Amino acid sequence: MNDNVAVIGVGLGNVGERWDKSLRELAIESIWMAFEDSGIDNVDALYVGNMSSGPFIEQENIGTLIADFAGLGSIPAVKIEAACGSGGAAFIEGYMAIKSGMYDCVLVTGVEKMTDVLPSKTTSILANASDRDYEAFHGVSFVALNALVMRRYMHEFNVKREDLSIFPVISHKNAPFSKHAMYRKELTHQTVINSPMIADPLTLMDCAPICDGSASVILCSEKKAREFTDAPIIVSGVGLATDTLGVHDRKQMTTLSAAVEASRKAYKMAGVTPKDIDIAEIHDAFSIMSALSLEDLGFVKKGEAAKMGLEGQYYIGGQLPINLYGGLKARGHPVGATGVYQIGELVYSLRGDGRVDAEKGLAENIGGSGSTVSVCVLERGD
User: Fold this and answer.
1) Among residues 309, 266, 315, which one has the least CA distance to residue 287?
2) Based on CB atoms within 10 Å of each CB, which residue in 131, 179, 345, 374 is the most buried?
3) CATH class of the structural domain 5-116+211-225
4) What distance in Å separates the CA atoms of residue 292 and residue 142, rounded to the nearest whole number?
5) Catalytic residues
6) Which residues in the chain come in under a pLDDT of 70?
7) What is the pLDDT of residue 382?
């Protein structure tokens, strides 16, 4: 069994409406970037994070598809699916492959092509990650499910809708720095509040956009990583957990139990507490998910995440800078790729991008309405 696992290469493709590229081309774009960044030219296995290549582009078996067209040879190549949490789940599979000692180097690629179908079909495809019999069948979209959770949260903790709308402002504040982000511009708090209502109380600017994108990272043992760099980024803890598929079955509608459990596992493995984390990439698909994530990851008491945001504690220079490359809201949310983007962005920050001096960071990727959550803790190598 290998001692430590390290990230040695990162490739983050541009996020947007990439009508000029097919899914395989998007994947190859980020893969070649990761190889160039790592300094190596081959890997032992490929793990692909993807939610819905079949419904979106009528193509399955994409592990083989990508390995073939990327020229990776006859290596094992599989798709990992965990709804919008597919990228984080794929990363943990890659981590385990190295940690077990089975492989020396693996490639984890997240990719999603969402814009080749009409928005109405996209909404239906995304709803496949909810409880189809008891939620989607009755016309409840993911926006509606999150709106229900947000309304309940506002009631339980006496929080205003306008207060929760601070989270898109925070993500967009960092977007101009992010070369791969879909929307590289800042937003005012008032713009978010006054944007069109989509599912009360969620406005348009409370929701992450539909888009295409691909991100890749290369993992290897720390020993091998030190052949290429004196300061590898170490994966010190990972956790993956599930909750009920349907929101209506949750014991507590306003608690992401899977985030609580996944972070508990990751913190224990890394030997840290939430207070030790310097930066975080959280799954801000909707404003309410930002608040729930920060609270259930242990960074702030229940009901107080928005207050901390309004006080400026999640901006660079605050207590816990979050979503330093724009988050899902400004970077974009190509669902199966998002978790890998988060890891890559965390690596960039920990390497030292000139904005923060961080030793330890956390990435949280959510599938469904909180039904699957991965948490990964990364830190600078000595």
Assistant:
1) 309
2) 374
3) alpha beta
4) 16
5) 84, 333
6) 1
7) 73
